[in-house]
Amino acid sequence: MTVKLPAWVKTSEDYERWKKGGGPIIGETEYARNIKLKECSACKAMVYAGERSCPQCGKKFTVSWPAQILLLMLALGFIAAITSPNSDNQPKPKKQVPAATVNTASEEKKVADNSTVMNSAWDGSVWQVKRYLEGNLKDPDSFNAIEWSEVIKTPSGGYVVRCKYRAKNSYGGFIVSNQLFSLDAAGNITKYTDFQQ
To answer: CA 175, CA 165: separation in Å to the nearest integer?
Structure first.
């Protein structure tokens, strides 16, 4: 019959100590240096930290109440983070922009009659195009206008304006787009195309 010896048994003295039920002497072996010990509250014997019961008196060790509560709170927090509807892996709802959104006092007049398409005196933007982009981009909050062209009235009574802007794409990376927007006489976007220089 072959008996497998523990790793700490290196000498005949270790073997004799092991036969009597003893363990390594702290500081004597490399293995013993890495072992964590704790004291049994019943018999005061030194016991390996991983043991579930004391080998001397048989007292069972349990996890303390504060540790159990901490583990429970961590588990519940992890589950809540995964199942939360506001976590980052959920798609963002599109921003609803009301039809009467205006930036300056001069644009309030345009909202009232909704027939004038013109550049804002404040930043050169065209509110109809800006509202359209903010309502249709993947991440409306990322919209940043770089350049607006002057509004041109077409012979058919519509309008054309170019907007160069920066916004996030589906992957979260910023892209620069340069698009030409066609608007009807009422200021509604009828089509848009990429602007080729």
So the answer is: 8
